[in-house]
Amino acid sequence: MSGAMSWPFLRLYILVLLYFSANAILNVIIPLQGEFLGASSTTIGLIMGAYMFTTMFFRPWAGKIIQKHGPIKILRLILIINGLALVLYTFTGLGGYLLARILQGVSTAFFSMALQIGIIDALPEKDRSQGISYYSLFSYIPGIVGPVLALGIWQAGGMDYFTVVLIGIAICTGVFGYSAKIEKNTDQPEGNAPDQSVSMWESFGQLVKNSHLFRCSVLMLSASIVFGAVTTFIPLYASQIPSGNAGIYLMLQAGTVVLARIVLRKRIPSDGRWHATFIMGTMFLLALAALCVSMSTTGGVVPFYVGAILMGIAQAILYPTLTTYLSFVLPQLNRNVLIGLFIATADLGISLGGVIMGPLADLFSYSMMYMICAILGAVMIVFAYERRNTVTGTSVS
């Protein structure tokens, strides 16, 4: 095997799988434990949202620091911090969970940026979209087994098992990650010269000034709000649906993401053009998925699980499509930092999915909250429309 599936990259993907295994379990355990301890949906949303909000805050600086020091040095330090966060979950309550989520957020900001920047820098342009797709694919594989495992731990009342599993994941991730290597592709042009560095605050301004970055960021922010609402509240919402099972839903969604990434990996655009119809179709799937989930209280498990499959397809397509597009159209001078800002909007969306949608669920209902998510997705279908198909700003037929 060569390119994005060569052994050095496979090692990175396996590291991604190990790293995100803990989250697949925590995304189920934390809401259930919070409800057991009497926390409201708003409180649970704040704890869950703290993870991605912290990740969002540190992501741009992660891109800048990694660009300066290289991904491997940063990666090894971050794996230690992540291990400490996982251990903290094993002996604390809701307050400790909040602190652990913040530590995890810092770790994930640097971990994901180090891996993605390393992959982008190491692969030739023709393999770039596949590399990003595989990274994202392996981050979702734990979601197939993790929710079912988490529910098994919860139903057995065995938080001792929870402790053993989290500590085991922390050790395995640290040991495996310490030996990882990323080599830069020598065919790519060098990035910043020392006297050409762009300040972080100038880069923040590009979120509005750069039309490519602005459009992709708004789409990713909106979609991530929906994804975050699903991750945070499906473990609680499923109990309101006759025969509904949160583990099956999350397993279906994650399994669909994995399968779609494998089947569609060569269909994700990697040419620097804005494929409006492709992205509008993806947002339509997202809106339809949220609508199915919303209607499940009256429609039963069929729309509930259909929503999981549609949500998985949308999730599989959107992120690698937008990330790959930006890797072509953003200026090389500060590309890493700008991609960090884009990914930060995804983090912010996931966080807002808990922080904003939690109070809406308390005020109305989970069903109405997911209906609002469907409306948001529908609005983004229109936003994704672009009359010009662009390659770094030029129109094509």
Automatic annotation (TrEMBL):
Q: Where is the Major facilitator superfamily (MFS) profile domain?
A: 8-389
Q: Which CDD domains match?
A: MFS_YfcJ_like
GO molecular function terms attached to this record: transmembrane transporter activity
Compartmental location: Cell membrane
Query: Pfam families this protein is in?
Result: MFS_1
Q: Which domain of life is it from?
A: Bacteria
CC annotations in GO: plasma membrane
Q: Which residues cross the membrane?
A: 12-30, 36-53, 74-92, 98-120, 132-155, 161-180, 213-234, 246-264, 276-296, 302-330, 337-357, 363-385
Which InterPro entries does the entry mention? MFS, MFS_dom, MFS_Exporter, MFS_trans_sf
Query: Where does the UniProt entry say this protein principally localizes?
Result: membrane
What keywords does the record list, in alphabetical order? Membrane, Transmembrane, Transmembrane helix, Transport
* Membrane-topology descriptor: Multi-pass membrane protein
Tell me the protein's name.
MFS family permease
**Organism name:** Paenibacillus amylolyticus
